[in-house]
Specification:
Chain lengths: 342, 335
């Protein structure tokens, strides 16, 4: 098994699973049980706003196929951004259960409902300033303790759909789906996504949102291996997140892939999934050929996240993150500055 | 008086603050003083989307964000943002501050004329493949509203030269990288050769040097007229001429691409297996975050948002229909 090479994270995962069993916190459930009839909807927009409007439409669509939808209004709950205390990462490196140090808000509950619970998920978030809003982003970056305690979610056995609402004329919502995908791709197999463009606000978008609800509901009744993405594709969309964004590193990271999968110079990557692609120029048309090895192991998959976490734990264990010299340097710099406050 | 405002969005005495202070040191060499704002020590709440600022020009949330925005957006000073990368993009504190800036335009649209300069320090990442793709683009969305970008860099603590453009002694060519890549390495061995040339402390030292240089660059740019300010950072092969980022959005089909931040459009071409983009220089003169373009966007929103539509009644009726679908759930209140 190729995951075995990440020995630090495998060790931590097993320890955490034992700890969970010892405390009687329930067994590891990695599979969405077929026949589940529940979808959780997470609305990050304001109460009775457009986000909830389209999420309601999706719920209506899902209800046609006998699904029941529970909606979370994140804007009405208390959501605080991550403070970067790293207590969850330290706990992981020791193989302990992680607890978020921010206890006076509702994010842990939201994550328990959306990430861990065995059900479908539809997220809708508004676009503020080209990307999805801070409430969604705060929920996303607070997911570490929940994710570390339930590493099995990374197998993505559950399905999800995405609604992003916003925009203006020329692509004022360019990074909406990208931001949402960074969160959803951690724990869901993507079935459908839509960027609702406010520039042509019409009833068609409602129909589209309903269709999204139906698509998610349909995907819940088949085994996850057979789930297919049914949303819109752009010409260059990465096969994992299907966003129309690509990044040009112009240089190639040093990667441990087998020789036959190494790329030629002149490639692109998906900034969300880190799937690489080769560019080809064929008959007056530029095409991107996405790498098959990467498509099976994108950044936000069990393989990719394990690799990343393994590296982080390695840092903590080997003391590479903060050496004495580094600390001394920081100290010298910290003496210099004028901190202002209101 | 010449002054730089530094906005640190990371932890108190964390890496991003250290690099910001290094930049302040660099600026001090040229006689420019830096005031640092520690966002994490202040109260910062996300925007709830209530639209009250559109009517009253004030934010209803009671926290320190107004003061931060007052300092960073309105004050006549340079700006250096130092922001950590969480989950591939800028962290929540930065995003919360950023999206609360709407009512600053109500107070003075002229901030969009960009008569001041700024720089960005992105920090974070790790592993051999970075994990920091969207940090600089997202930080740019905030900075480009009010500042001309002078310098930016992403400090990637993976120690690899390919991922830290600023870390390179000489420019990396495709051949160089090809040479690196033809070695076949096991995962474990990768970590043995992983520091390549530099240990992590060396990387940190070099990052501090680079941050000092950024501070100097920003201070330098403050002493020349704004139309003569030149971008002093590293450039990618396909960098957008305004924000110098390397993320492209492809709205319809190649070869037509655009920068997702500035919406400067371009035409891509491939030569010798390498992509080049011919950018539309008219767009680059009036990018998305220019006085003209933002004004157009706000006018457009005013015209199209919340106004009567021919099918408004129908939409309202449908909204009512949805109410019975979906049960709103809430956490139980602890007693």
């Amino acid at each position: 098994m190729e995951l075995e090479q990440f020995k630090y994270i495998i060790e931590a995962r097993d320890k955490i699973a034992q700890e969970r069993a010892r405390r009687g916190l329930g067994e590891v459930t990695e599979a969405a049980r077929p026949g589940k009839k529940k979808i959780i909807g997470l609305s990050c927009g304001k109460k009775n706003g457009n986000c909830e409007f389209y999420l309601g439409a999706a719920a209506m669509g899902a209800a046609e196929l006998g699904m029941e939808t529970e909606i979370i209004r994140a804007a009405e709950l208390k959501v605080k951004p991550c403070r970067g205390c790293a207590s969850c990462t330290v706990a992981l490196s020791r193989g302990e259960l992680a607890v978020c140090s921010i206890k006076d808000d509702d994010v842990s509950w939201i994550l328990e409902k959306t990430v861990v619970e065995d059900c479908g998920l539809i997220v809708s978030a508004p676009v503020y300033y080209i990307r999805s809003n801070a409430i969604l982003m705060a929920i996303c970056e607070r997911m570490h303790p929940t994710m570390f305690n339930h590493l099995e979610i990374l197998k993505k056995r559950k399905v999800g759909g995405i609604i992003s609402v916003g925009g203006g004329l020329d692509g004022w919502a360019s990074l909406g789906l990208t931001g949402l995908n960074i969160w959803v791709q951690h724990h869901r197999t993507l079935v459908d996504q839509v960027q609702v463009e406010m520039r042509d606000r019409s009833i068609d978008w409602l129909e589209r949102a309903k269709e999204l609800g139906r698509n998610v509901a349909r995907a819940m009744s088949v085994p996850v291996e057979e789930v297919k993405y049914v949303g819109a594709e752009s010409a260059v969309s990465c096969p994992v997140c299907h966003c129309d964004v690509m990044q040009m590193p112009d240089y190639i990271p040093h990667d441990p892939k087998p020789k036959e999968f190494r790329y030629k110079p002149g490639h692109v990557v998906c900034p969300v999934c880190w799937v690489h692609g080769d560019l080809s120029f064929d008959g007056g048309k530029i095409k991107v050929k996405w790498d098959e090895w990467d498509v099976k192991r994108p950044r936000l998959s069990e393989y990719g996240v394990f690799e990343h976490l393994d590296m982080l734990i390695r840092f903590y264990k080997e003391g590479r993150a903060d050496t004495a010299l580094g600390k001394e340097m920081k100290k010298q710099i910290s003496a210099y500055s004028k901190i202002i406050k209101p | 008086m010449k002054k730089i405002i530094g906005l640190s969005c990371g932890r108190k005495n964390g890496n991003s603050e250290a690099l910001l202070k290094a930049a302040a040191m660099g600026a001090a060499e040229l006689g420019v003083e830096t005031e640092i704002i520690r966002a994490m020590s202040l109260k910062v709440l996300p925007c709830t989307g209530c639209h009250a600022c559109g009517r009253t020009g004030k934010c209803v949330l009671k926290d320190d964000v107004d003061w931060i925005l007052e300092k960073t957006c309105m004050e006549d000073a340079g700006l250096i943002i130092s922001v950590p990368c969480y989950h591939v993009r800028t962290n929540g504190y930065f995003v919360c501050i950023h999206e609360r800036m709407n009512h600053m335009f109500d107070r003075d649209m002229n901030i969009l004329k960009k008569t001041r300069v700024g720089g960005i320090i992105g920090i974070g990442g790790g592993g051999y493949d970075a994990w920091t793709s969207l940090t600089l683009p997202l930080a740019n969305i905030f900075l480009q509203h009010t500042r001309v970008l002078v310098d930016q860099f992403q400090a990637n603590f993976c120690g690899l030269q390919e991922w830290n453009l600023w870390l390179q002694d000489e420019p990396v060519t495709a051949e160089h990288i090809h040479q690196l890549r033809v070695q076949d390495l096991d995962y474990d061995k990768l970590f043995q050769v992983w520091p390549q040339k530099y240990e992590l402390v060396e990387v940190f030292k070099k990052a501090i040097e680079r941050a000092k240089q950024l501070g100097r660059n920003v201070a330098q740019a403050m002493s020349v007229p704004i139309d003569q300010v030149k971008y002093a950072g590293e450039d990618y092969g396909v960098a957008c001429p305004v924000c110098h980022g390397n993320v492209l959005v492809v709205p319809k089909d190649l070869p037509y691409v655009a920068c997702p931040v500035c919406y400067v459009r371009g035409v891509a071409s491939v030569k010798n297996g390498k992509m080049k983009v011919q950018w539309n220089m008219d767009d680059a003169r009036y990018p998305r975050f220019s006085y003209e373009a933002v004004k157009h966007h706000l006018e457009w929103l005013g015209k199209h948002y919340g106004r009567d539509y021919s099918r408004q009644d129908q939409l309202k009726q449908m909204a009512k229909d949805f109410e019975e679908y979906g049960k709103i759930i809430k956490p139980e209140v602890k007693k």
